[in-house]
Amino acid sequence: MPKRKFREEWLQEENFRGWLRKVDGDDYSAYCNVCKSTLVTEVSTLKRHSSSRRHTEGLARQTVAPAAQPPPPDRDDDPVTRAEIKLTAFLAEHNVSINTVDHLTSLLKDIFPDSNIASKLSLKRTKATRILGNIGKKRQKDLQESTFFS
Q: Where is this region: Disordered (predicted)?
């Protein structure tokens, strides 16, 4: 099944306006500002999410007491995101199968039960593959902008 890219016109739709945004650097993910969660960019998934209990209750809380929004989890300054990126890069650098990450994250949680970062890791092969793609795109862009190729 082909992946669906984020569509800017969704931001104007009544069901998605105000809470949906595009994830920077990832054309295949959307972000819910209410639930603080990353979503797959399929209309049916987004519609289902918009009517979910968690989302509707979050919207109700938000309208009662709007609070400052913390930075989304896709930012490099988030320690959990940084750890997931570094783990993925380590696997690629040492030519370790991406399938290993499914077991590695649970192993790290078991080894470091007192680590706040390890406990929040949610890295599996799909996410690791996406991270590798983003690293590759960034590296390619850096090379294209380099003075060596001008």
A: 46-80
Residue for token digits 């590759």?
Answer: 136
Q: Structure tokens of 120?
A: 């929040």
User: Are 101 and 88 spatial neighbours (Cβ–Cβ below 8 Å)?
Assistant: yes
Q: Which residues contact 76 (CB under 8 A, 6 or more apart)?
A: 82, 85
d(CA 27, CA 35): 20
> Tokens at residue 117, please?
């970062």
Crossing angle of helices 79-93 and 101-111, rounded to 10°:
130
> Per residue in 29-79, pLDDT tens?
889 888 888 888 888 888 888 888 888 888 887 765 444 444 455 555 689
**Of residues 5, 84, 64, the one with CA closest to residue 40:** 5
